[in-house]
Amino acid sequence: MLATALSYRLVASDLPRSLERTAQTPQTAREIEYYREKIGQVKSMEDFLADDRLFAFAMKAHGLSDMTYAKGFMRKALSEGIDSRDAFAMKLVDRRYRDFVEAFNFKRYGETTTVFSRAVQGTIDKYVRQTLEETQGAQNEGVRLALYFERKASGLTSPYQILADPALSQVVRTALGLPDSIQGADVDRQARLIEDRLDLAELKDPGKLSAFLERFAALWDVANPPVPPQVPTIAIGQPVTAQIGSDVLMSLQSIRFGR
């Protein structure tokens, strides 16, 4: 298995091409074709929920595949829209539900909801990106996490956004050297720890974001080592495993981002 940093760079260095290859795989291409053909025929929330394949496509596009079964939950979110601060989706901590309702806002737009780009091409683009991340995650979960963080980084303005998202939290804890046990601490304390060690505004700088993800990838491999290469030694002919030296680990731990 390739190191996480190298695998991530191979995908991210030419992301448009990586996405194109993903979209052209037979299974993905079939799902895109079905969605594109059927979505324009949807004129109501009930039409949308009635087509299991169509609904599952949209849910996956928004990273909500694990909630595809919960149609009652999603019906409530869709039926209340997002125009009121008291709407169901607006009260949920997870921003993905609000984004989903915004893309399929039957409450506001009725039967014209599915003519907008965000419901058609925007959803297809999200589906392809999600599929790419899942495919990479099947080989190396660290690569999936890095790609996901890269996608979300520009919109991060508060440590509470990170704490509300398990994947973002995993990346930040790993990169900052925080133990998983910190999750049991008071949420405000966790937020202060992140603020003290990471300037979120600087993640909008591609170079600084790249450095942050390189650190994450290195420390991810320390905690989740890929199968190491077997290197024959000249002296005795026995294989030895490649390892990260303690000096490298110390230097990684000493880095403070945005401060």
Q: How many beta strands in the DSSP annotation?
A: 2
N- to C-terminal distance: 34 Å
Count of DSSP H/I helices: 16
Strand count, sense and barrel status of the largest sheet are: 2 strands, antiparallel
Shape: globular
Helix content: 55-70%
Classify the beta-strand content into a percent band: under 5%
Poorly predicted runs of 5 or more residues: 233-255
Task: Specify the structural class.
Answer: mainly alpha
Read across the widest sheet, the strand sequence of neighbours is 1-2
Q: What is the overall pLDDT average?
A: 89
Please tell me about this protein's structure:
It contains 16 helices and 2 strands. The chain has 259 residues and is mainly alpha-helical. Strands 1-2 form a two-stranded antiparallel sheet. Helix 1 packs across helix 11 (141-153) and helix 5 packs across helix 10. Residues 233-255 have low confidence and may be disordered.
Describe the secondary-structure layout.
Layout lengths: L3 H9 L2 H10 L1 H14 L5 H6 L1 H10 L9 H10 L7 H4 L3 H9 L2 H4 L11 H19 L1 H13 L5 H5 L2 H11 L10 H11 L8 H18 L6 E3 L6 E3 L4 H9 L5
Antiparallel strand pairs: 1-2
Helix pairs in contact: 1-11, 2-10, 3-10, 5-10, 10-11, 11-13, 11-15, 13-15
Short note summarizing the structure:
The chain has helices at 4-12, 15-24, 26-39, 45-50, 52-61, 71-80, 88-91, 95-103, 106-109, 121-139, 141-153, 159-163, 166-176, 187-197, 206-223, 246-254, and strands spanning 230-232, 239-241. By secondary structure, the protein is mostly helical.
